[in-house]
Design a protein that fits this description.
By secondary structure, this protein is an alpha/beta fold. The protein has a single domain (7-251), classed as 3-Layer(aba) Sandwich (Rossmann fold), CATH 3.40.50.720. Helix content is 44%, strand content 16%. It has helices at residues 16-27, 39-49, 63-80, 109-130, 156-159, 165-185, 203-206, 210-218, 229-241; strands spanning 7-11, 31-36, 53-57, 84-89, 147-152, 190-197, 248-252. β1 (7-11), α1 (16-27) and β2 form a beta-alpha-beta unit. α1 (16-27) crosses α9. The longest helix is centred in the middle third of the chain and has 22 residues, at 109-130. It is globular. The chain starts with 6 loop residues before the first strand and ends in a 10-residue tail after the last strand. The structure holds nicotinamide-adenine-dinucleotide (NAD). Nicotinamide-adenine-dinucleotide binds next to α1, α4 and α7.
Length: 262
């Protein structure tokens, strides 16, 4: 899929991995529609990127909010003539908690719902609502491609640590839905790829204590450091451009396998 002169919808697009993706696709000529809760970051990213970027304040766990953002994006696409080439579902949260705590209290259903509603339901809902505007694209290239869906899982999809049942469930589900999504969309020439990063520098990992971060870095093979968001964005760019990437989950993790506990 060509990047230039296409519109990409990026949730979580004003921070961390989503922002690096937005900057990279934008630098390669894309229009970026950024859906995020963080309106302050949204305003500053739009002022940085200029007229090829639009921000929609959106909670991806709210179906109506996604519908409004998609409608706004479609109206923008009508103005620019730059069709929707892809979705990067990057909005995500972590809320650690043991399944049962030291007082024998089970993990609250509210915290489980919070994580699943954003990371899993929000991802699928965004994709579900964007796809009808991609299936009608004019096919491009020798293979007649219409678009690409890129999702973000995590190392926790495979080796979730203690305290990560909800997060691992949400990311494991995103990894699992990649192949059936690709199968559903194949007849339209739309691909689906998931990237599963290990630890990358972002607002999310800034909240980790120095001790936890160092411990995670120790469990990396090479390089022994957190990834930088630009390295993630480079893989997104390859996922957009390489038509053979479809229905698969790509680990981007410096051979890190997370230990049970830190
Ligand atoms: N950074 C890492 O080490 C790492 C590792 C594996 C997976 N991930 C995943 O990568 C994705 C991006 O995370 P990041 O590290 O860039 O974190 P980040 O906190 O920098 O960015 C996440 C963005 O999502 C937005 N967001 C949160 N809840 C939202 C909601 N309900 N609706 C809309 N937007 C919402 C936040 O406002 C923020 O801008 C997440 O899905 C995360 O789980 C991150």
């Amino acid at each position: 899929m060509k990047i230039a002169d296409r519109t990409f919808i990026i949730s979580g697009g004003v921070s961390g991995l989503g922002l690096a993706t937005a900057r990279d696709l934008h630098a390669h000529g894309a229009y970026v529609s950024l859906l995020d809760l963080n309106a302050d970051n949204g305003a500053s990213v739009v002022s940085e990127l200029g007229s090829r970027a639009k921000f929609f304040e959106t909670d991806v766990s709210d179906t109506e909010a996604i519908a409004t953002a998609i409608a706004g994006t479609v109206a923008w696409v009508k103005e620019t003539g730059k069709s929707i080439g892809g979705v990067v579902a990057g909005a995500g949260v972590g809320m650690p908690g043991l399944i049962v705590d030291k007082n024998n209290e089970p993990l609250s259903i509210e915290s489980i719902d919070f994580v699943l509603n954003i990371n899993l339901r929000g991802t699928l809902d965004l994709i579900r609502q964007a796809i009808p505007y991609m299936t009608t694209n004019t096919p491009s290239g020798a293979d007649g491609e219409r678009g690409v869906i890129i999702m973000i899982a995590s190392s926790a999809a495979f080796d979730g640590q203690m305290g990560q049942v909800a997060y691992a469930a949400s990311k494991g589900a995103v990894a699992s839905l990649t192949l059936p999504l690709a199968r559903d969309l194949s007849k339209y020439g739309i691909r689906a790829v998931t990237i599963a990063p290990s630890m990358f520098d972002s607002a999310m990992t800034k909240m980790l204590s120095k001790k936890v971060k160092q411990s995670l870095e120790t469990s990396m093979e090479f390089p022994k450091r957190a990834g930088v968001p630009e390295e993630f964005a480079r893989l997104v760019r390859e996922c957009v451009g390489n038509e053979m990437l479809n229905g698969t989950v790509l680990r981007l993790d410096g051979a890190m396998r997370m230990p049970a506990r830190l």
